[in-house]
Design brief:
Two copies of one chain form a homodimer. Chain A has 198 residues and is mainly α. The first copy, chain A, contains seven helices and three strands, in the order αααββαβααα. Chain A has helices at residues 3-11, 18-26, 38-50, 74-86, 97-102, 110-132, 141-174, and strands at residues 54-59, 67-72, 93-95. Chain A has a two-stranded antiparallel sheet with strand order 1-2. In chain A, a hairpin with a 7-residue loop joins strand 1 (54-59) and strand 2. In chain A, helix 1 (3-11) packs across helix 3 (38-50), helix 2 packs across helix 3 and helix 6 (110-132) runs antiparallel to helix 7 (141-174). The longest helix of chain A is centred in the C-terminal third of the chain and has 34 residues, at 141-174. The radius of gyration of chain A is 23 Å and the shape is elongated. The N and C termini of chain A lie far apart (50 Å). Mean pLDDT of chain A is 87; it is low at 186-198. Strand 3 (93-95) of chain A pairs antiparallel with strand 3 of chain B, so a sheet runs across the interface. Chain B binds a DNA duplex (28 and 28 nucleotides) through residues 2-3, 17-19, 35-40, 42-43, 46, 61-68.
Chain lengths: 198, 198
DNA sequence: CTCCTCATGTAATTAGTTACATGATTTA
DNA sequence: TAAATCATGTAACTAATTACATGAGGAG
């Protein structure tokens, strides 16, 4: 989904500045499931303005740049509705460095794996705590639905780590595991516990 | 995480061709949590070969290009171990067009939302069914751990939709919702049910 | 007879990220 | 006094995606 459509969608919830749109994607209604930065938002907003899909009025502010508040035009609304009604969504894309690293747990020091795992769990729990402070009554029906889905996913991850994390670390510490067959132990892995019987 | 490290990690599970590495990321051990295509893999493998982190032997094949089987060199193993041990992982990035669209459910026809929701659920259930056919005994300990985490996440999504999807569609059909305030009904939304009392 | 799998690779396009540039106010 | 928040925007760089180019064999 391109930055322009994302901005259009954000503006459907009311007029906003580029700065505010980014906050929505970072901690607000869209938190977590569609990252987008300034470098994408500002050019998108400029393009949208040139196409007449949004309008903009500047609010002068003391000591900082004018706040540019963008708002959907009727054409912008139509474009959003059309995109949502006819475009088939691309498949979800999930990128996780942590999970990739964890899948190679045997290659790392168990203490390192433990750290990675704890940090990952804490991140998800923090997200959950942050979400608990949001008031679903202030959301639209659609937002509330995906908000609940996000909570379900984060809880599932935290619970899974709580239930299975210790067993992973213990297996690693005991050296009781299948090592990846592509590694033949020729590198300087001074901290890696070897499998019993090697 | 760059394509080179991803390839190094894949090769830790044994020698493989570019084609096979892609399969691992698409349906194998790394399925779902780190998409990567040919356009990233082949150049990465070429660079890795030039750096001496992998070696390669060509297997001639009838009627198709020679299969180039890459394998980690001791330097490649060392590079992988170093990256995994010292690099701090980037935050997870999740991009979901479907979830973004669903958050604007009020802007769409309820039948369209229903379709989107069903397709999304089916995709996750299919993933789950596909995963059920994999044998965890053939995986390394790390792979098995993240495999289980993936299952937990997909189940959580499917269950959430099973439990809450119908209520969303019904609310939409009844017109019983908070519409996004940025939309003022000026576009040609012929199919959208209006909120009672408007 | 068409589509999918196998199999590699380059080139062009597109998009996203990061760094730079500026600067006042508030909070710790 | 350092860091975070508010506030915008451009330029450079990096990376990913898509299309192109080739082609046999097997399944439906």
């Amino acid at each position: 989904m391109d930055a322009k459509t994302l901005c259009l969608g954000a503006l459907a919830h009311g007029p906003a500045s580029g700065y505010e749109i980014r906050k929505m994607f970072e901690e607000g209604a869209y938190a977590g499931f569609h990252p987008i930065g300034f470098g994408s938002i500002y050019p998108a907003l400029t393009a949208l303005l040139a196409e007449g899909l949004v309008d903009c009025h500047e609010e002068p502010q003391a000591g900082r740049p004018d706040k540019k508040v963008y708002r959907l035009t009727p054409q912008g609304e139509a474009a959003l509705v059309k995109t949502l009604s006819s475009n088939q969504p691309a498949e979800d894309k999930y990128k996780s460095d942590t999970l990739f690293m964890l899948s190679l747990a045997e290659v790392m020091d168990p203490a390192r794996v433990d750290r990675l795992l704890r940090d990952y769990r804490d991140l998800k729990v923090n997200q959950l705590n942050h979400m608990a402070e949001c008031d679903p009554a202030k959301m639209t029906t659609g937002q509330r639905f995906i908000f609940g889905l996000g909570q379900a996913v984060y809880s599932a991850i935290a619970t899974y780590i709580d239930n299975n994390g210790d067993a992973l670390i213990e297996a690693l510490e005991r050296g009781d595991y299948h090592a990846p067959p592509g590694l033949r132990g020729t590198s300087e892995r001074t901290t890696t516990v070897r499998k019993a019987g090697e």
